[in-house]
Design goal:
Helix content is 39%, strand content 30%. It has 494 residues and is of the alpha+beta class. Strands 12, 13, 14, 15, 16, 17, 18, 19 and 20 form a nine-stranded mixed beta sheet that branches. A hairpin with an 8-residue loop joins strand 2 (14-18) and strand 3. It is elongated and about 125 Å long.
């Protein structure tokens, strides 16, 4: 670029490199207004002064490919620069900073007389042609303030009356005024046209940022009846569609679990399913019908909603999905639609947390004079069919299979007094669990509808370091047989 000086500034307005002063590093950039203008416009230029020299400085972003710094190139304004301008303007030009000449086409004697005239005479009016007597010559002078960040910089354009004919000077003055007027008109029309294009573009860009942030209610206002106006209408229709989709997603997430809603939106609402291993949890309140007889419908509904809120929170906290509510019963899934390698552990920990949460609720309700309730939970792990079940017009994402029925049967076994268990877990679930738990083996039970006996356990809690048991010896020990019609045959060994 043949620049006289190059400065590199960081995006935080720190000076990284200066060819004129290489010893400076990581200090505040000396021309912050230039960088501020470049950040707004993409690039900017202005006149700056340092080391008693005047530079035309341009700031552009340094891309790699995203902006990583500002590249500021400075071109010194000196006599050579002034003579280059004189070559196509045919005017004497002087760049002034206060009472200092940075560059000029005048002779040294004329420069001294010019500074003396400016120092002792009245200040030159900006952008007006005035007469100035310098070194025994009359000059028509035109002062133009230049945009500068530090200090006052003026470009003084001059033509000697002694060297030109008076008529020619008058004609050139007319031409100069017309040129400036045309430039001003062109700039005015250019600004108007640029604003007419950039304003709706900025409005659309701002609207896109709002949409990206999740504000689907934002609408852009573009009153132009052209392509940009049509684009704005399409943009508003898009945002309205996104708002409607978000409302449907939010409503769907309240009717069914968010995970199931996401699965339905991803795969589409079609009938069918797939086989997968799922841990199923059933919970049911004990003697809730009798309790309801002592409460009003509003009190019963409030208690039930409070109960389900706490139970669902325990399920969702451990990554489970509440499949459905049936009366005062709850069915939860671990492994459908989302699969985790520790689904069995999530189900067991969720059951323990549900029981603990119910104990806290009972303490609160007892203090308020409300009846307390009990819960039974059954957990089983098996390969089932998971998918959308129902009709073409109304369906439900759920799981079906023998393993689901077994989990429901295990929940029913918690009603057997001899078991004295609030949580009953199948051996299949414990075999897949990775954590350590305190359990009580209940033996084998021939659940109704199944010919093969199922080994069941009462889940008591998490096992601490002092209560670690060898699960292998428990699983491979010779099982005892329990007749569901004779619950007194249960094995209660710890």
């Amino acid at each position: 670029m043949q620049a006289d000086v190059v400065l590199i500034a960081s995006l935080e307005n720190k000076l990284l490199f200066d060819t004129a002063r290489p010893e400076l590093h990581d200090v505040a950039f000396p021309f912050p207004k230039l960088l501020a203008a470049a950040e707004q416009q993409g690039s900017a230029s202005e006149f700056v002064t340092f080391d008693h020299r005047l530079y035309a400085m341009a700031a552009t972003p340094l891309l790699a490919p995203e902006p990583i710094a500002w590249l500021c190139s400075g071109f010194r304004v000196d006599d050579n620069f002034s003579r280059e301008i004189e070559s196509f303007t045919r005017l004497e030009i002087t760049f002034l900073g206060g009472h200092e000449v940075f560059g000029s086409t005048l002779l040294q004697r004329q420069r001294r007389d010019l500074l003396a005239a400016l120092e002792h005479g009245p200040p030159l009016p900006a952008q007006q042609v005035t007469g100035l007597f310098v070194a025994d010559e009359d000059f028509l002078s035109y002062s133009v303030p230049l945009p500068a960040e530090n200090g006052k910089v003026t470009a003084l354009l001059q033509r000697s009356l002694d060297k030109e004919l008076a008529s020619y000077l008058r004609l050139e003055r007319t031409y100069l005024l017309l040129a400036l007027l045309g430039l001003a008109v062109s700039v005015a029309f250019g600004i108007r046209i640029a604003r007419g294009v950039s304003r709706p573009v900025h409005e659309l860009a701002g609207g896109a940022r709002k949409i990206a942030q999740g504000d689907y209610q934002h609408r852009v206002v573009v009153k132009q009846q052209d392509e940009l106006g049509s684009l704005a209408d399409s943009f508003n229709q898009m945002s309205a569609g996104l708002a409607e989709r978000d409302r449907v997603r939010d409503l769907l997430g309240k009717v069914i679990s968010p995970e199931v809603a996401a699965e339905l939106l991803r795969r589409g609402v079609t009938l069918g399913g797939e086989e997968r291993e799922v841990t199923i949890l059933f919970s049911d309140l004990r003697n809730f019908t009798g309790i309801c007889e002592t409460l009003s419908p509003q009190e019963m509904l409030a208690i039930l909603n409070h109960y389900f809120t706490c139970m669902a929170a325990g399920v969702e906290k451990h990554g489970g999905v509440v499949d459905k509510y049936v009366g005062d019963a709850l069915m939860a899934l671990f492994g459908a639609p989302l699969v985790s390698p520790d689904d069995a552990d999530r189900a067991l920990e969720s059951a323990l947390e549900m029981v603990a949460a119910l104990d806290e609720l009972n303490v609160q309700w007892s203090a308020r004079g409300l009846p307390t309730i009990a819960v039974g939970i059954g957990i089983n792990t098996d390969v089932v069919v998971a998918g959308n079940m129902g009709s073409e017009t109304r369906l439900n994402y759920t799981v079906i299979g023998d393993g689901v029925n077994l989990a429901s049967r295990l929940e029913g076994l918690t009603k057997v007094p001899e078991y004295n268990a609030r949580i009953i877990v199948s051996g299949a679930t414990l075999a897949r669990a990775r954590g350590r738990y305190r359990t009580r083996r209940l033996g084998e039970v021939a659940v109704k509808g199944k010919q093969i006996p199922t080994e069941i356990f009462a889940l008591l809690g998490l096992a601490g370091p002092e209560a670690v048991r060898d699960r292998a010896s428990r699983h491979f020990a010779k099982p005892s047989r329990i007749d569901p019609d004779r619950p007194d045959s249960a094995n209660r060994t710890e």
